[in-house]
Design brief:
With 237 residues, this protein is an alpha/beta fold. The chain has eight helices and seven strands, in the order βαβαβαβαβαβααβα. Keywords: Cell membrane, Glycosyltransferase, Lipopolysaccharide biosynthesis, Membrane, Transferase, Transmembrane, Transmembrane helix.
Length: 237
């Protein structure tokens, strides 16, 4: 199969969601505007996630997986997905499915002109505390990065793989993907997407992660921006 688009699905202790993930993503492959495959990245889950992932991959040729030796965090899982992608486009979605795969088509409609297209969760179905902490964290990040993005935490993105592979990931950098594309002189765009309540499993981030974590990561980003190397080859023999 000549795949054009890989969807990375980071997984950490999501055994209650994975059969639903299989159903939703398999349905999406039938309506996708690009020929699509799915790559699970199991971030060292301690439940039955890996057994389910292997069963899903054995019965669906569109599904592959990577299993980490130990838990390394969301940024590492996303980076591994980028590193192991072989298609021209890569995206990712969280395994809690609070966003829907069908909205990838909305993002893919703009990826020709842009290098990263990200969703913006409209009418979010989260708690007041979670919504407010995310708004504050996004405001802090925008002040530091000037990326103009309203919701970088939205777990629905499409990126040209050549740009994704050049992102020098560090812990927490998944919040800065648009800014890292802009450091490469890439173009970014945000599109409203649907948002749904979590129906199974537990959220992996609390108030500390959503506020203090992003603030500390902003300083790491500023250091990265100052040291970042960007070049274009004009000629080669």
């Amino acid at each position: 199969m000549n795949y054009q688009f890989t969807i990375v699905v980071p997984v950490y202790n999501e055994e209650d969601n994975l059969l639903r993930v299989e159903k939703e993503l398999l349905a999406y492959t039938k309506i996708a505007t690009k020929v699509t495959k799915i790559l699970f990245v199991n971030d060292g889950s301690k439940d039955k996630s890996q057994d389910l992932i292997e069963a899903i991959c054995s019965r669906n040729e569109q599904f592959d997986y990577i299993l980490f030796k130990e838990n390394r965090g969301l940024s590492a899982a996303i980076k591994a997905g980028f590193d192991y992608t072989t298609t021209e486009l890569v995206g990712y979605i969280d395994s809690d499915l609070q966003t829907t795969p069908e909205d990838f088509n909305l993002l893919l409609a703009h990826i020709g002109e842009f290098d990263l297209v990200t969703g913006v969760r409209s009418n979010r179905k989260d708690s007041f505390v979670k919504n407010m902490s995310s708004k504050i964290a996004n405001g802090i990040r925008r002040a530091f990065t000037k990326d103009g993005m309203d919701d970088t935490g939205c777990p629905l993105k499409v990126i040209k793989t050549v740009y994704a592979k050049r992102i020098p990931m560090f812990k927490g950098l998944h919040r800065f993907l648009p800014a890292m594309i802009m450091l490469q002189n890439g173009k970014t765009k945000q599109i409203p997407v649907q948002h749904f309540p979590r129906v199974a499993g537990e959220a992996k981030f609390g108030l500390w992660n959503r506020l203090l974590g992003p603030l500390m990561d902003c300083f790491a980003y500023l250091w990265m921006k100052k040291k970042y190397i960007n070049y274009e080859v004009a000629k080669q023999k």
